[in-house]
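A quick aside before the break. I want you to see a complete sequence-to-structure record at least once, exactly as it would be stored in a machine-readable document. Don't worry about memorizing anything.
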Amino acid sequence: MSSSFFQKGKSRQVFKRKGEKTNKPKSKKQNAPNLENGQESSDSELDIKKFSDAEDSESDHETAEEKKLRLAKKYLEEIEKEEAKRAETKEIDDAIEKRLQKDYLEQKGKLRVNVADSYIVPTENDCKLIRAREHRLTLTCVCVSLDGQYAFTGCKSGCLIKWGIKEKRKLGCLTFKTHSNYFKGSVTSVAISSDSKFLATSDESSSINIWDPHTMKHVRTFNGHKDIVTGLVFRRNTHDLYSASKDRSIKIWSLDEMAYVETLFGHQAPITSIDALTRERAITAGSRDTSVRIWKIIEESQLIFNGPVGSLDEVKLLDEEHFVSGSDNGSLCVWSVLKKKPLCTVSEAHGSENNVPRWITSLATLLNSDMFASGSYDNSIRLWKVYEAFRKITPMFSIQANGFINCMHFTKDGTQLYAAVGQEHKFGRWFKQNNAKNGLLIINFTSKS
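That is the input. The structure line, written in tokens, reads:
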């Protein structure tokens, strides 16, 4: 029998007596989402709200004027930070732009920095002659690392010395006694790569020796020339080495692969000087053939510039498009690669002796500037200013230096000039100055404020 008590789907009615309370189960309330403008608020908004609540609690003790002042200061600080970031970014961009423009102009040979007018004649205290007992005979060559840390000098006694520029002392020495396998006769040339990884030396043999300039350990010997190697130079920012010899040839060596690359012919007399910059080009002076030649290595061609009568002994690049040469008739010539004749010539630049002009024994150029130095045996180093368009040069001042100035080298920033000084000419013993001292002359320059 069916009863309403057992019917399914119907809930029981609870009848309460008078004075009783029924306990109803409490329903769990869901956390209602925080709605703001119809959307749920994010965690960041909650954080901002907490921050603003904290600020409100802090500002409870402030007056309205103090609060305005505090908020204004905060706003100004934020603006300052933003502007500082923008200025820093702009400075970096400007620096990069200037560097790229400078590199481009330097590569094209159009970079020119006018510094000659800012140089002051150095005093006696600015000139210092450093001597070493290993340099018993005339110094023949000098080179300075691009970073300005080391200088290397060679002499006729077959000795190579490493000098620390910052330490102001001798750091190492290689002599013909300790390294007789690598030095035969006088050291004729020395060159260091732009990154100071390799040092190259030549002597009175036909060999070229490669050294580690930091440890002064021997790395490799190159053979191939048939006569004395008279000049060495590294192409800038590379490990390509160019060598010139009395056998009238130029050879190219790759030190990355430690291999011979190519030989260039053309001169009709022994080559006495060689120079190079960043382009794959070399410039050489051919002594008695009175010519300067620019070797375009990639194009496999050469440009010939015929100089004045006599032996054209020295050549140095002012930039990629201009160079200066010196002869044994005492003349200095400034050239352009676009002209076959000199743009300007100074005869008897270092005077004469017994009606015979003094030879130009060395040249040094401050790259991409309007200044260069020349040396002879008139007991002075002369600095010259090159004017616009390279059509005029005038003497700036002279520095006393007793003896033959056989080689010179400016530091990269132009604040110092290193000169290899000796009693005799680097290539022979035609003359001798007994009152001169063999040593490395360091000249410090100061500029006008």
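Two observations worth writing down. The two ends are 124 Å apart (CA to CA). The CA atoms of residues 211 and 218 lie 5 Å apart. We'll return to this after the break.
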